[in-house]
Amino acid sequence: MIDRRIINGSKIDSELADDMTKAGIDRIRSCIQCGTCTGACPSGRRTAMRTRQLIRKALLGFREEVLSDPDLWVCTTCGTCTERCPRKIDVTEAILYLRNLACQEGYMRPEHRAVSVKLIETGHAVPIDDEKWSKMREDLGLSPLPPTVHSYPKAVKEIQHIIKKTGFDKLINYKEGKEDDKT
After folding, report:
1. Rounded Cα distance, 77 and 86, in Å
2. What is the pLDDT of residues 43-80, one digit of tens each?
3. Which of 39, 109, 110, 153 is 20 to 30 A (C-alpha) from 173?
4. pLDDT tens readout for residues 83-112
5. From CA 107, how far away is CA 162, in angstroms rounded?
6. Mind listing the domains of the chain with CATH numbers?
7. 175 pairs with which residues across the strands?
8. Distances 80 to 39, 59, 67, 140, 173 between C-alpha atoms, Å
9. What distance in Å separates the CA atoms of residue 173 and residue 183, rounded to the nearest whole number?
């Protein structure tokens, strides 16, 4: 007897498409695999990103394969695929949904995790609080820190409070400035 839950060594999650539908990506099952999303994708022109392939694998239930695919993170979420989809599927929302699942299951690019850690520790995702940037700003006649959250320690505490309340710190496995990298 053939076990239809495993195809070519990949475990099948028949509920993945249902979960996407329940999450509001209700038209995902109407995808006809025409390839318009892939053909329209600006990111796909310069990378291995194949939107149609990711969506197809998700619909077929290749959960781990989709969530661990580095191409999932190449999407710029520009929305071109959604604008051009003949079935009016919100492809961008589908990609974002899959990314959220990937994070929840520990598949996050090290670069994205590093940006997230920077956000938690400083309240700002861009590393402008180190000596190199401060010196460059001073050379330009500017204050060492721009008037962002870096200049307001109270604001950093507020951001950290929001991050804790929303569970973002747990989502990225943040522990006292150390990342638990599963990628």
Report:
1. 18
2. 988 988 899 999 999 999 999 999 999 999 999 999 99
3. 153
4. 999 999 999 999 999 998 998 888 988 888
5. 23
6. 9-104 (1.10.1060.10), 110-179 (no CATH)
7. 178
8. 10, 21, 22, 39, 32
9. 12
